[in-house]
Amino acid sequence: RVYSSSKQGSKVLRNMLSQTSGPCPAKRVQMIGRPDRASQKLILQNTKLQPMQSFENACVVRKFAGYHVVRGWVVYDLMNSNPGEGYIAQRYWWNMTADGRWVDFTPRPEGMASLLLVEALEVSPRKARILTDDQLALADGLYCLRFKGASATVRTEFGKHGPESILLANTDIKGGCELRSAMMAAALGGALTGQLSNDSNLFPIVLLQSILMRCLRADTGQGDTLGLFIAADGIEALARLLESKTAEVAALAAANLAILCRRSCTAKKQLTKQLDGARLLAGVFARAEVKNAKCPIADVAHHLWRMQSVAVDSPLARSQHVGVPDDGSQEYWESLRDHACCASLQTMHAESSPFERRAWSWSRTLAFSRMCLGSRGVAVRRGSFERPFVIWVLGAEEAVEAQLARDGFFDDANLMDRAPTEIVIIGKELQEYHSGDVPQEGRPPSIRITSDDLLVWKMQLSDESPDLAVVFMPEVPEPQMDGSQLSQGVSPLPDSVLTAVAHVPVIVTTRYGLGESGAMALRCKLRGQIIMQQVRSPFSSSAARPQSMLDDNGWIFAVCGPGAMAKALQMEAPPLQAASSTPQGPSRTPALFWGILDIKYDTSRPVLERVKVLETGDGRTSKFSGDGAGILRRYKERYQLELDPDMQMYQVISADKKLTHDLFEQTGYSHLVPKQVCFPRVYHKRLAADIIEGLGLRGRDNVILKLCNRSRAAGVVVTPASELDNLLTKLLHPPDELDDWFSQRVGRMMEGSPVDFGFKPGDLEEQLRHWWSNESPVFVAETCCRSVPTVLNSRSFDGTLRVGFALRRKHSGKKPWEQHGATTGPEDLDIDWLGGYWKLPKADAGSGSLRDAVVSAARISGTAPVKLAHLFEVYAALGDSVQQLFGSAEPSSEEIRKMYQGQCGLGSYLTARIGTAAMNRHPARTREMLADADQMALTLRECKEKTIVQSFIYRAYGVFEAKTKSDGQDPECWFRDSLVCHPTNSLTLHLQGVAAIQGQRLHAGVELLSKALLLDPDFKASYVNIGIAYLRLGEFERAVQVSEAGLARHPDAPQPQYHIGVACCQLALNMVLTGDPETEFDRLQYEELRQKSLAGFAKARSSDEGRKRNRPNKDASDPPWLEIDEKMIVAMEKDMGDMPLPLPPNIGWFWHSYRL
Fold first, then answer.
1. What are phi and psi of 736, to 5 degrees?
2. Which of 5, 214, 925, 1005 has the fewest CB atoms found within 10 Å of its own CB?
3. Quick check: helix, strand or coil at residue 57?
């Protein structure tokens, strides 16, 4: 800064320039500005002038323009003192024109418009000498201070090795002088601040580091000097450099700030409160260059920050004293616990909807835990306006605790006392958030969300410390049956965070009870650091059903002490259900129903939206391959089905997607099912637009179209919303010339392969036929849900999670149907979870095939195991939805009519469907509900929806007459009427074909069943029964073909295995019996048939259904235990191919399936 014009400044300056006693005796003094533009332009165009080189510059100007050289000083005002109290004079040369004007052409800093020049009274000669490193460093420093963007010279040896070498060299220089001290003060007083805005130049910040290191080593006298730098906005300049694109610059800025904050509370406060320093510092040390050790200077910065955290009164030290009782004594918390309002709050929570119970379980369980600690004598103070009660939520996730807090579901964290409370939600890579509220009495808590990296820096810079910490349902190591671990548990928290809560009570919530052995293991591990044993929370997700074994925030315990939380997070989860040693037989647990849920589960979604139930299914007809085999094994070893007439109702619920969806919604679990719309299977021009509007889709969104009553992905079609109309046109328009369509395709099957359906399995053509032949009058459209990616063999799949369950009664005794007016309700049912696994789609997520990448096809791509923590979350999220679903009272015709008042076709269909479920126990009710359904259908206008409903009703009448053997109309008459209404009804065609075979009209049966398979190539019964027809016709090769095609889709079916055994035996015998005695027959082919026959018989007999048919009385035996079966097996085993074994006319293992 040029000299001050104050009076005090004039006096000091006069003393300095005195000709008799001053250090710089002056001959002449003058304030000059810059040269005029014309002169300056002329000089600069014809000479080369250098900054800081006034001697040489003056000589160059004299040589070019003839201007006389003037020798003296330039005088600056020192900024480390008050204006006019201190000056510094630097030797300086300039020029004088012919008319006596002083001019200075040496380049100056931009802000230096004028200079105070002093011509020396006497000029003493100076000898050239080599500058020391100390002097060079000073020269370079002056150069960088004065000229923005200037770089340090490379003349010094240490300058050749980068800025960190300069830093070390400067900090190691010993000695000093008044001049350097003055220059340091001038730099800190603001000269450096302007240079720090250029993050492409390292030298100014390196020089600042050097100066600050000297200040750090100085015992006294530097406080005022640092204050000058702060007053000159130096902290703000350094904070800006923390965001520099250059890692070295950002790290150097962090190092400088560490020194400043160590020496100055003002600097620390400004960095924390005004400049969001914690976020900026966290960003510096989160950079990839810093983490990968590619920025050595960052180590220096990190070390300096560790030094400063020890030097000051850090929150880590103060945290040891947190929790001393304030005005919250044990008696206070006990009074809250015993007060009636606590019980009323529990009742209020239990009576909330399932969604609200789960959403509020985090904060309310936290409030309950705090009350439990206080009532047990743990020091838990009551918050006040001046000092709110601070709770740290550790290990939080963006999609769980952070999302719940943003949605307002942490507002009940102080539910018990409503004292001023602050909740700090801490986790990896969380988005910063503050509710903006000030903690107040009677108000919800203030919410703050921060990442754990950022918290570490906030702890360094401020007084962050909690009164209580909580970890919600940590993911813990998972013991497996083979002793391995599928998961390593929760990610470790930063050491500084663990230290901060070392002497603070820490609440841990879990989804499961530890049990006696688990609690003992935890006690042994923690050794006296447990301050509250595990207790059940009345504010859990399933508070309405406290006997639940898996429950969000269902259990809580608390620990305190160094390392206690880390040990608590290493507790083991309950093991997977191991195979039971209970023998099969009457000792197994009776089960009312066992089934499956197919679920989309996505951990990237908010916690309340992660689980979406796609459909339910009957365990007896579901497939459990690969990683799902354990589900079937556990069921068989532990359970046996009760002979409960209600089973038929369970099957109706599990088999209808629309009914399942509606029951989920009615019981308060609408959040567990995808958004769905339902429409009649009648095309109109607005249909696609109505679906898109109903689901809230956009052009690029995908939509799932489903048939209501089909399983195994039959009829499931995925399409972009933009292509929906084109697809609906195909799905809802069967062939116009149906007779010709059948004739061409059935003729091809008769002449060639009996399973030549004209498409590949899973193709769109197959889905079209499912839609043409379906009996439900409506279809559903759903939003396309995703699952967390499952990686298998380096390929990422969007899998479907399948979980198995068994429903059983809570109490034994009389069955409900044995008691007058008694029913089985949701409250009477308990659920046992049997495990889960991932079913993978045919193609991976990057395949480009939409349906193949979304719809699961485990038999093609396989399966994958699921993490136990994910299973537990899914089980807890489901709550008692399965009990509510299957425990719902069977609706009457009138109740169905009201439920589907605006959907008469659907109401009529479901009335008939539910009526047929009562066929075995209440035939009269079945007849009554079928009549009600028929009357309801008559109210429909004449359209396809009406004829489809009537087709199903007539088929149901036919099945009813066939099963009850009543004196009503002939079943085949009903079947004919059904086909008149709906000619592509594949199930009616199937029943007609079975009736024809049973009446020994085998060719007619084959034709009808071939039509049924053309329309529904996934129906197991059609493969089985057409195989019987071919056996009876003696067309054994075709019997093998259809049986193998059936096994390709239903590999566990024993009937096709039996038919292959019979057919291959007959083919082998025929090779021997019909061959030319003089010609050697194909021995290899014969041996292949013989082995194939034996394998078919063996698999059929070893199946569950096969073993049940093995009766002691062989005269009453059924396939595969017939006398002729024994003879065929013996003939194949002993290679007795020369003995004929004619088949009886009733050969074949029938599979009766009415699909009602």
1. -70, -50
2. 5
3. helix
Average pLDDT score over the chain: 83
Number of H helices, E strands in the chain: 47, 28
Half-sphere exposure of 740 (CA within 13 A, CB side): 4
Alpha-helix runs per DSSP H in 982-1035 = 986-998, 1002-1015, 1020-1033
Going by C-alpha positions, the residue among 470, 432, 471 that lies closest to residue 451 is: 432
pLDDT in tens, 140-185: 666 666 665 454 443 333 333 444 344 434 444 443 444 445 555 5
Q: How far apart are CA 1077 and CA 1138, in angstroms?
A: 12
User: H or E stretch including 601?
Assistant: strand 593-601
Residue 890 φ then ψ, to 5°: -65, 120
Strand partners, 612: 600
Q: Is the per-residue pLDDT at 1110 higher than 60? A: yes
Q: What are phi and psi of 91, to 5 degrees?
A: -55, 140
CA atoms of 1145 and 1156, how far apart (whole Å): 30
Sign for the pseudo-dihedral over CA of 658, 663, 664, 666: positive
Could you tell me which of 98, 97, 58 has the C-alpha nearest to residue 74?
Answer: 58
Question: Tens digits of per-residue pLDDT, 229-286?
Answer: 777 677 887 888 888 887 878 888 888 888 788 777 788 888 887 787 888 888 887 7
Contact 759, 696 (CB under 8 A): no
Q: Output b/e per residue, 29-44; b: 16+ Cβ within 10 A.
A: eeeeeebeeebeeebe
Residue 522 burial class via C-beta count within 10 angstroms: exposed 0-12, middle 13-18, buried 19 and up: buried
Closest-CA residue to 1054 (of 1012, 1021, 1103): 1103
d(CA 1042, CA 1027): 6
d(CA 428, CA 179): 50
What secondary structure, in 3-state letters, does 448-497 show? EEEEHHHHHHHHHHCCCCCCEEEEECCCCEEECCCCCEEEECCCCCCHHH
- Which residue type, as a one-letter code, is found at position 92? Y
Helices (H), 488-545: 495-500, 515-526
Q: Amino acid letter at 897?
A: R
| DSSP assignments along 1069-1089, one per residue | HHHHHSS-TTS---HHHHHHH
Taking the C-alpha atoms of residue 748 and residue 1013, their distance in angstroms, rounded to an integer, is 13
Provide the whole-model pTM: 0.77
Q: DSSP letters of 664-724?
A: HHHTT-GGGS--EEEEES---TTHHHHHHHHHT--TT-EEEEEETT--TTTT-EEEEGGGH
* Closest C-alpha to 300, from 341, 241, 352, 259: 259
Strand, coil or helix: 849: coil
